[in-house]
Design goal:
Blueprint: E1 2-6, E2 12-19, E3 25-32, E4 40-43, H1 44-50, E5 53-61, E6 67-79, E7 82-91, E8 96-97, H2 99-102, E9 105-109, E10 116-121
Parallel strand pairs: 3-8, 4-7
Antiparallel strand pairs: 1-2, 1-10, 2-3, 2-6, 4-8, 5-6, 6-7, 9-10
Length: about 120
């Protein structure tokens, strides 16, 4: 199970653990974005810190129907006790967790200041 909390800004925030190029774990916080269909976004500074491997550049359609090109990287996370390979979009925003990484899990959010966020594997 992954546990986080609701911020004062009404964002569901969870801790994530990403491996850098040397295999060391770097702990980050990411906001759950149910409108994002991918795995994970990270700012370019974090991608550089982790020294992630560039995979490709890809065009995505944003919520306002604009097409934007993003650099896509490969990363390994420690997710729910297991290593998981994911694709990461380089963005200018804070880290976001998308729906693809949540597939096969149940998301529960107690939407109050400091409320609990639970992500549990489907049984």
């Amino acid at each position: 199970m992954i546990t986080g909390e609701v911020s004062a800004d009404n964002e569901a925030v969870i801790p994530i653990k990403a491996y850098d190029a040397d295999g060391h774990i770097v702990e980050l916080k990411a906001t759950i974005d149910t409108g994002f269909a991918g795995y994970l976004t990270l700012p370019a500074t974090t991608i550089a810190l982790l020294r992630l491997q560039h995979d490709r550049t890809e065009t995505y359609t944003l919520g306002d129907n604009r097409d934007v090109e993003f650099d896509v990287y490969r990363a390994t996370l420690s997710w729910d006790g297991q290593n998981r390979r994911v694709l990461v979009l380089s963005t200018e925003s804070d880290p976001l967790i998308g729906m693809k990484i949540l597939r096969g899990y149940v998301l529960s959010i107690d939407i109050i200041d400091g409320g609990t966020v639970h992500i549990t594997a489907r049984t």
